[in-house]
Every structure is written in structure tokens, then in C-alpha cells.
């Protein structure tokens, strides 16, 4: 599913909610390429587009807002819009730290299969 944003960019949200998470990409340079509209403003996503991109229900976005989590937003009357740069900044804070060299790459690797401590 492609979502058009101001400035000629598109968000590629995958083939729908069953194929989550989608990938944010602009036609002309990928997610890291910031495009502005002809008016010099950054592209904005509505709450449905953000939910599709992140692969979460819209209700989760509302819950995050209620609990002070999630990306910053703009409110225009009843509409909530999210700036691409705010989404990127929030996503950077959500990234897990890099695993140390030689460390397991999944949670609980040092525990048994059922969350038990390994027996010695």
C-alpha cells in the first residue's frame, strides 16, 4: 500500500495490515531523505497512516498518546498529524542498544527454554 505525502513522496506500508511492519520510503531517496512540500513544510501522516506504517492498531497510537509515549504530534482541530522528523526521532529512541560482540541476539538466551535458570 502506498501512501502519498505532500512533496511527491510516498510511504510504502506493505500490502496491508497483515504484512506488518511496513517500510517508510520516499520515491526519491529512502527514509533518510527528507522531502518538504512545495510550501517548505515537512510531510505529515495522519494517525491511520502512522498505525499502518508501524503495524499497530490505531488504538495503540491513542494509548501511547494518553500515556505520554509515542511520537510528538500536531493537533489541527480534531485531527492529529505526525511529522516525519518527529516519527524518526521517536523511532531512534525506541531502538534497542547494539548487542555486545559474541552476545546472544535474543532475549533470555542465557535462560532455559521455559525461562528457568540453567542447571549446573
Explain what this protein looks like in three dimensions.
With 120 residues, this protein is α+β, with helices and mostly antiparallel strands. It is built from three helices and five strands; from the N terminus they run E-E-E-H-H-E-E-H. It has helices at residues 47-54, 58-66, 84-94; strands at residues 2-5, 9-12, 44-46, 74-76, 79-83. The protein starts with a strand and ends in a 26-residue tail after the last helix.
Helices and strands, in N-to-C order? Answer: EEEHHEEH
So how many helices? 3
Relative helix content: 10-25%
Strand content: 15-25%
Largest sheet: 3 strands, antiparallel
Mean pLDDT comes to 74
Number of strands: 5
Distance between the termini: 52 Å
Shape: elongated
Secondary-structure-derived class: alpha+beta
Low-confidence stretches: 13-23, 25-33
Compute the CA-based radius of gyration. Answer: 18 Å
Amino acid at each position: 500500500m502506498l501512501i502519498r505525502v505532500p512533496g511527491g513522496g510516498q510511504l510504502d506500508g506493505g500490502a496491508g495490515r497483515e504484512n506488518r511492519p511496513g517500510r517508510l520510503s520516499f520515491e526519491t531517496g529512502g527514509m533518510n531523505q527528507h522531502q518538504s512540500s512545495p510550501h517548505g513544510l515537512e510531510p505529515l501522516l495522519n494517525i491511520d497512516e502512522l498505525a499502518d506504517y508501524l503495524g499497530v492498531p490505531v488504538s495503540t497510537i491513542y494509548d501511547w498518546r494518553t500515556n505520554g509515549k509515542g511520537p510528538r504530534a500536531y493537533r489541527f482541530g480534531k485531527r492529529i498529524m505526525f511529522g516525519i522528523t518527529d516519527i524518526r526521532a521517536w523511532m531512534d529512541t525506541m531502538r534497542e542498544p547494539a548487542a555486545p560482540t559474541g552476545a546472544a541476539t535474543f532475549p533470555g538466551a542465557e535462560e532455559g527454554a521455559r525461562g528457568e535458570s540453567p542447571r549446573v
